[in-house]
Amino acid sequence: MALPSAPGSRRSRRPGEPIRILETLPSAPPRFLADDGPVEVSTYPGGRSSALVFTNDDIHKLTDPARVQRVLDVLGRHGVPGVFFVIPGYRGHLPIESRDAIAGLLREAVRDGHEVAQHGLTHKFAGGHNLGKIGYREFHSLPAEERLLRIFCGREILEDAGYEVDGFRAPGFSLDFETLRILEQQGFSYGSNGRLHPLRRGLSRRLPESQYYPFRLEGLSMLEFLCEGDYFHLPWRRREVMKALTSRFGEYRERGGALVLLSHLEPLTSNHRLELLDDFLSEAVSPDVWTPTLRQFSRWWVAREALTIRTRVTDSTLQVHLDCPAGGPMKDVAVSFRHPNGLKNYEIRSNGSGVLARGPLNGCRVLVDLS
C-alpha cells in the first residue's frame, strides 16, 4: 500500500509514488488518556478483551449468489457479521445494479447485520494490459483526477444499488497518500488498505505493537485497519493453515488487539476452505471476543477515543462522570473500579443521560449505554 514515511524518516515523494504501510505504523499501541485513577473503561464493548472482524473481497455483478450464501451460512452459525468488499463496476462495464440477484442478497445480508464496503471501481489497472500483479492494482500511477472519479463513481454505483458505504479497500492494496486524502475528503470513515501476509506457525515478524489496533496516518483522521491473510488462498495442508491462523489470532488476543481477517470469495468457496473457516470460528469466537463489522468498529473506536472520565468522592460514594462528545452513542460501555479505598457505593453519570447506574462497590463491573 502507498503510505507516507513514519515520523522522523520523512522525505519528499513524487505524486503517486508507492510507499510501504509498515514504514508508517505508530511505534506504540493506543492509549486512552481519558482513564481516571480509580476507574477503568474497557477498550471494547461489554468488557471484551479482543476483537475479530471477517472480511471478504471481490464480489461483483457476475458473482454467483450461491457462493455468497454459503459464506453467510457459515458466519450465521457463529453469529459473526461479515464485511463484503464489492467491486462496483466490474471490468469497467458491468456495474452492480439493484435488480441483480447478488445485489438483493447483499441487501438482505445488510439487514441481518452484515456490511457492504467499496473495493475500488473496476479492480483493473487503468492501462488494461496483462501486467501480472500490477493488473489488479487499479489505482497504480493514476492521475489525481482519475482516482477521485473512480472513488466517487464506485461509491455512487453502490449507493444506487441500495447500500450505505463507509469503508474502502483498494484492489491490490496499492494506494498512495494522496488517494487516502481523497477518501477522507469524500467522507469515508475507514480504510483497510494494507495487509500482512500469512506466516507459518512458529515464525514471527518484528512489527510495532500498533499493528494490532486501528491507527491513523500522520495528517489524516480516517481510521486504517491492517488485515491478515489471505489464509484461505494458501496451498498448505488444511491442518497447517489452521495452526498458523489460530496461532496468529492468539497473538492478537494476548495483546488485546483486533484481527481483521482477509478472504477472497472464489478461493474461500473452493477446496473445502469454508470448512476451514467454520473450524476457525468455532475455536476463535467466544464471549470474550468482539465480532463487529468495520463500520461498527470504527464508530466505536472514534467514540472511545473521545470519551472522557472524571471522578469525585461525595460522602462514601464514588461519582463517575462519562462524557462522549464524538462518535455517537456507545452501547455496553464496561466500567470497572480499581481501588475503591474504603468507599461503599458508586454512581455513574453522563452529561447527556443523567444517572446511568448506581450500587454498592464490591469489585463489580458495570455496563452502561451512552447517548
3D structure, described in words:
- With 371 residues, the protein is of the alpha/beta class.
- The protein folds into two domains: 49-286, Glycoside hydrolase/deacetylase (TIM Barrel), CATH 3.20.20.370; 306-370, no CATH class.
- 26% of the residues lie in helices and 24% in strands.
- The protein is built from eight helices and 17 strands.
- It has helices spanning 65-78, 101-111, 144-160, 177-185, 238-254, 265-268, 273-284, 294-306; strands at residues 39-41, 50-59, 82-86, 89-90, 94-95, 115-118, 167-168, 190-196, 223-228, 258-261, 289-290, 308-314, 317-323, 330-337, 345-350, 354-360, 365-370.
- Strands 2, 3, 6, 10 and 11 form a five-stranded parallel beta sheet that branches.
- α1 (65-78) packs parallel to α2 and α1 (65-78) runs parallel beside α7 (273-284).
- The chain is globular and about 70 Å long.
- The relative contact order is 0.17.
- Mean pLDDT is 84; it is low at 1-13, 15-19 and 128-135.
Quick description:
The chain is an alpha/beta fold and 371 residues long. Helices cover 26% and strands 24% of the residues. The chain contains eight helices and 17 strands.
